[in-house]
Design goal:
Length: about 325
C-alpha cells in the first residue's frame, strides 16, 4: 500500500541504489552546501553579474539537493535543503515545490499531524498546483489523519477503545475529496480508505453500545446502535448491529420492535450465524407474546417524578404549610 502515498507518476525507489547511497559519508551534504555557497560568492565577485540567473540557479541547485536526499530516504536532510529554498528564495518556482517536499518528508518521518497541516496549507496557498487540482494533496491529507489515528499496539487497548477523533477528521477530508475531485484517478483508493475508516468507526460504536449494555443502560445502547446502523450501512457489521438491536429491544420490553428487527435480520442475512439465531428469538417471542400486534402498548419511558423537598419549619417547630387543627 506504500505506493499510494507517492505523487502520481513517481517511480518506486531502487532498494539496491538506496543501500549503496546510505554507505556514503554523512559529510556529503555539508560539502554540497559549501560548493553551492562558494558558487554564489564567486559569481558575486564577477563584473556585472546576472543576479536573476544566479537566484534561479541557486534555488534550483538546492532544491535538487533536497530531492536527492529525499530519494536517498534521508528525510531530515531533505527537509533542511527544502526549508533553505523555501525561506531564502520565496519568489522562486522551486519554493512551491520545496513546500510540498517538506510535507512529504514530514509524512515519511511519521509526523502525521504536522504533515496534514502542511498539505492543507499548501492546498490553500497554491490552488492551481497540479497536485492540488488532481486531488492528490487532498487525498494525502486524509491519509495523514488515518495514519495519526490509534492503531493496535501491544500492551495497549484495542484501537476501537481509544480516541477516534482523527478518524472523524479523516472521514471529513475524504468527503471533501469526493466533493471537489470526484473524477480523480485516486477516487478508487479514496473509496477504499473511506470504507476502512467507516469500519473502524463502526467497531468503536459497537464497543460503546456493548459497554452500555454491560452496565444495564439499554436506552443509551439503542441510541448508539440506531445511529451507527443509519450512518454506516454496508460496512460489514449490519448483522451484528441488527442482532444487538433485537436483544436490546427485548430487554426494554419493546416486543414489536424486537420482532421486526429479528425478522429483518433473518431476511437480509439468512446465512449469517446471527440470522440463524434470529429464528430462535422469533419463536421465543411468538410463544411468549403471541402473534404480531401493532397496537400493543409500549413501555412508559417517562422518568419517575421526584418527591418534593420538605418545607422549612417555623419558629414554633411546625411546617410552614401545615394546616391548623380542626375543632
Amino acid at each position: 500500500m506504500r505506493w499510494l502515498f507517492r505523487r502520481p507518476g513517481e517511480r518506486s525507489p531502487d532498494l539496491c541504489a538506496k543501500n549503496a547511497k546510505r554507505s556514503k559519508s554523512a559529510s556529503r551534504a555539508c560539502i554540497r552546501q559549501l560548493l553551492v555557497a562558494s558558487a554564489v560568492v564567486a559569481s558575486g565577485c564577477a563584473t556585472a553579474p546576472d543576479l536573476a540567473a544566479q537566484y534561479g540557479q541557486t534555488a534550483r541547485e538546492n532544491y535538487e539537493l533536497a530531492e536527492a536526499e529525499f530519494k536517498d530516504r534521508d528525510w531530515e536532510e531533505a527537509t533542511t535543503f527544502a526549508d533553505f529554498v523555501r525561506v531564502r528564495f520565496p519568489f522562486s518556482r522551486y519554493a512551491v515545490e520545496a513546500e510540498l517536499l517538506v510535507a512529504r518528508a514530514d509524512f515519511e518521518l511519521k509526523n502525521y499531524t504536522t504533515a496534514a497541516d502542511a498539505f492543507k496549507m499548501f492546498a490553500k496557498l497554491h490552488p492551481t498546483h497540479k497536485h492540488v487540482r488532481n486531488g492528490w494533496v487532498s487525498y494525502m491529507t486524509a491519509v495523514c489523519a488515518v495514519m495519526a489515528a490509534p492503531d493496535d499496539v501491544i500492551f495497549l487497548p484495542p484501537h476501537y477503545q481509544r480516541d477516534q477523533s482523527q478518524l472523524k477528521v479523516a472521514l471529513d477530508e475524504i468527503a471533501y475529496f469526493f466533493d471537489h475531485h470526484p473524477d480523480s484517478e485516486l477516487a478508487v483508493h479514496a473509496a477504499a480508505l473511506r470504507d476502512d475508516v467507516q469500519r473502524r468507526l463502526l467497531e468503536h460504536e459497537l464497543y460503546v453500545a456493548q459497554f452500555y449494555l454491560d452496565r444495564d443502560r439499554p436506552y443509551a445502547a439503542v441510541g448508539r446502535l440506531e445511529a451507527a446502523h443509519a450512518r454506516f450501512p454496508g460496512a460489514g457489521f449490519d448483522a451484528d448491529i441488527l442482532f444487538m438491536l433485537g436483544i436490546t429491544y427485548l430487554r426494554m420490553d419493546e416486543v414489536e420492535l424486537a420482532r421486526n428487527t429479528f425478522s429483518k435480520l433473518q431476511v437480509k442475512h439468512p446465512q449469517h450465524h446471527h440470522g440463524k439465531q434470529a429464528r430462535i428469538y422469533l419463536n421465543h417471542i411468538y410463544k411468549t407474546y403471541g402473534p404480531a400486534d401493532p397496537s400493543r402498548p409500549r413501555p412508559d419511558y417517562k422518568p419517575p417524578r421526584p418527591k418534593p423537598p420538605p418545607r422549612p419549619k417555623t419558629a414554633q417547630g411546625k411546617s410552614a404549610n401545615a394546616q391548623p387543627p380542626q375543632r
